[in-house]
Write a structure and sequence with these properties.
187 residues, alpha/beta, Rossmann fold, single chain, globular, 8 strands, 5-stranded parallel sheet, 3-stranded antiparallel sheet
């Protein structure tokens, strides 16, 4: 009998993590005078928008530059998979700014690598930091590490971390699934 899918973060825990991540960002970036936030499409934007909103409330600065970045055609596997491009929405230059790049799950590092390449079309940043909700630290294919981490999950290759967002799945939570559960559409 295979183990059932398990929720590793519920809505309350997710909100606490978002608050913690915001305060860590404020320790480094203060009021974000020289910093911008970029969420990676498709799933990192949900976390990035929440981080951006909370930072605005906490700092009193709702005008922190924010953008969504599509990395589809910068991926090293875009010819091998049926990928659906998303929309990039960045209306500012990142030249000499500090960029906080945000994604939901850091697994192999390939999406982040693609994001770094795509981001260069908007200028050369002074610094780039990575924030992720979940870090699957034993699965890297490229040497990428997050500076801000919501939670670290030690999982095997046959498991998948799935993040549900209210905006798309109707509820906030993070699951740990086996490949069989993923194929069967569980969770």
């Amino acid at each position: 009998m295979s183990p059932s899918p398990r929720i590793i973060l519920d809505e309350k825990q997710l909100n606490i993590i978002i608050q913690r991540l915001c305060r860590q960002l404020i320790e480094t970036h203060d009021h974000f005078k020289d910093s911008v936030i970029i969420g990676l499409q498709p799933r990192g934007v949900f976390l990035a928008r929440r981080i951006h909103y909370q930072l605005g409330k906490i700092t009193g600065n709702p005008n922190i530059p924010y953008g969504d970045l599509d990395v589809t055609f910068y991926r090293d596997d875009f010819r091998k998979k049926d990928l659906v491009p998303n929309k990039t929405n960045i209306d500012f230059i990142i030249e000499d700014r500090n960029v906080v790049l945000i994604d939901d799950v850091l697994f192999t590092g390939r999406t982040i690598r693609a994001g770094l390449d795509a981001m260069m079309a908007f200028g050369r940043p002074a610094d780039v930091e990575l924030l992720v909700l979940i870090d699957r630290r034993y699965s890297r294919n490229v040497p990428i590490q997050a500076k801000y981490i919501g939670q670290t999950i030690d999982s095997v290759a046959s498991e998948k971390v799935k993040v549900d967002w209210k905006e798309t799945e109707g509820q906030d939570r993070v699951w740990l699934l086996t490949n069989e559960e993923t194929k069967a559409g569980i969770a």
